[in-house]
Design a protein that fits this description.
248 residues, alpha+beta, Arc Repressor Mutant, subunit A, 2 domains, six-stranded antiparallel beta sheet, three-stranded antiparallel beta sheet, 9 strands, globular
Amino acid sequence: MAALLPQGEEALVLQSQQSSIRNGLLAALMPDDFASLQPWLEPMDLKLRDTLVEPHKPIEHVYFMERGITSIINDSHDGKVEIGIIGREGMVGVPILLGTDRTPHEFFVQIEGSGLRMEARRLAEMADESITLRRSLLRFAHAINVQTSQTAISNASNSVESRLARWLLMCHDRMDNDDIPLTHEFIAMMLGVRRAGVTVTTHILEGNGLIRARRGMITLLDRERLVELADDAYGVPEAEYERLMSQE
């Protein structure tokens, strides 16, 4: 049996474990809150198209992503449209924090990666017991609400070029390099436009030297100009997330 660590040494070990976490939400938690969650976090590989939360069904697990991207999808008679994305900055399964165990939206893996899984019921119980944990988690819930609201505004008022620029920037924020594995068919579903429209728009961005498009892959070449093209469609949710995560 391993010897028990002195309290000070144990705290240093937990601090080291938390600092090595690649999930921004977990990394920003108070040390005591992270320590309470840490034993229940299960490493998971997240494969392309894995459904993490099914619409209208009880949420069994939450996922703190460390690599990859999950899409929040609204499915209507007109087809599937992405209303938000979650990567290493946050958690999949926010509705569990808001007093409900299900959602009409689907959450599935858009870009494969990995994360830490935890029972949704247990997280909800722990959030009820710790004011600081609940506050931190609800800050992220607010950040997601800001992002989805900005998506609605962008879809209603921005050009397809600006919307595509915004979406590529959001994906890039959650990646480790400039290569984003995406097909035109997938982008069309995410933006709620026809595939032909995505092809034309991609050619425009590529012709202007902002990106390079290959089969199943888009490489960002000029992020600064993409930000300019996205204009006010990009930046508000990102700034709000940074503000919230920097609070003690």
